[in-house]
Amino acid sequence: MDEVIIIGAGIGGLTLGLTLQKSGIPCRVYESVPEVRAIGVGINLLPHATKELAALGLEAALAKVAIETRDATFFNRFGQLIYQEPLGRAAGYDHPQFSIHRGDLQMVLLDAFRDRAGADRVIVNHHCLGVEQDSAGVTVTFSDGPGGKERFTVRGRVAIACDGINSAVRKQFFPDEGEPRYSGVNMWRGVTRWKPILSGASMVRAGWLSHGKMVIYPIREASADGLQLINWVAEIETPNYRKRDWNRAGSLDDFIGPFSDWHFDWLDVPAFIRAADSVLEFPMVDQDPLPRWTFGRITLLGDAAHPMVPRGSNGAGQAILDAKALTSALSGIADPVAALAAYEQQRLEATTRIVLTNRTNPPDAILREVFQRTHDRPFKTIDDVISRDELVALSDGYKRIAGYSKDALRQ
Ligand SMILES: Cc1cc2nc3c(=O)[nH]c(=O)nc-3n(C[C@H](O)[C@H](O)[C@H](O)COP(=O)(O)OP(=O)(O)OC[C@H]3O[C@@H](n4cnc5c(N)ncnc54)[C@H](O)[C@@H]3O)c2cc1C
User: Fold this and answer.
1) 158: which of 64, 118, 170, 297 fits an S-S bond (Cβ 3.0–4.6 Å)?
2) Could you please report the per-residue DSSP string of 115-169?
3) Contact criterion met (CB below 8 Å) for 4 and 23
4) What is the distance in A from the centroid of ligand 1 to the CA of 241?
5) What separation in Å is there between the alpha carbon of 29 and the centre of ligand 1?
6) 317 CB under 6 A from ligand 1?
7) Residues 35-81: pLDDT tens digits?
8) Is the dihedral of CA 149, 150, 153, 154 positive or negative?
9) 0.90 exceeded by the pTM?
10) What spacing in Å lies between the alpha carbon of 8 and ligand 1's midpoint?
């Protein structure tokens, strides 16, 4: 009854479980699916997020399964280098940038939470249908998985909706909001076992959305055969998409065309795509920022609160920062209603700025700038197109807004 009820065992929900457990606040995580399995493809954790995960004692466990990313490298669609900058520790941060399989990240969090809090603190097959509250606490109603016929209710002190982009709790409070907003860009994602590309720890972005853009980065160290597991995302402006489902299979023929002549000295892109283990298709979506997330003893966290288009490597990181802020509020403020209000006060405006900046000026705005200035033609030298200072300013501007400039992290 005095527990914090966490709805959803994704990145945000599990991190919240760990931060609350560390602060001695009892909590339990309720997850919709019958078994938490390592699904998804690549995800990036920037230094502001890895700082918080290190504070939870997870850096070594993450380093074992992730790649410590060393540089961001931008090319046009002719394979010409536009800009390169160091990342994470290589850029002088106190904490690394990790590129990691989403499933590996989720498993590190889940194992740590079960070890520290007890296996009975994660309850699967509990799909949240809605939350009610009174002056003494909350009552959460679950079914036995999505579409299940059985009903269970659980009482708690507060309820935190970490149930992702299709959040049931967000829909309860904002029933007229409609489906997530399609950005006009469809994504095809996959992983390929391939020999290391460039530094072997490079985050590559190439091309531009109107013709076809690729994001490529390794997420697991090379195995005995010398091949790394390398994540890639093809992003193409597309008027419509078919279905929004994280596990929807995609078809090579639907997107490989624009990349068919990308034979670069640093990578044969079509051969690399064709060698993928599998292809997933997912539309690039977000939602307009909300005016509020907190309703008395109930609040939203992570994608449930602020889904953002994945152009700044910030979705998982912002969920992790939410977890830290919410735990500080619940530890420092005795009244749970005031604590949830303080959490919203600290995080809503900050994440709103990121959602909006991801739409207009995320780090890949560098590619748009060069695409426009060159009219999508090869250049003789990049200095004729854009100065190094302008490129640095584009990149640093995003870091400041997303909260991971070096100065911000040392405060
Ligand atoms: C299956 C899956 C695959 C993903 N793959 C990628 C990827 O490859 N790359 C990427 O950048 N991002 C991916 N994401 C999204 C990414 O994890 C989030 O953007 C980010 O990490 C923020 O995390 P979150 O905890 O807010 O949401 P999520 O990590 O999405 O977690 C939400 C959790 O809530 C659970 N849930 C949903 N509805 C309910 C309900 N009604 N009741 C109880 N539990 C519920 C979900 O099963 C999930 O475990 C994926 C998400 C999911 C669910």
Assistant:
1) 297
2) HHH-GGGEE-S-EEEEEEE-SS-EEEEEESSTT-S-EEEEEESEEEE---TT-HH
3) no
4) 20
5) 14
6) no
7) 888 777 899 999 999 999 999 999 999 999 999 999 999 999 999 99
8) negative
9) yes
10) 8
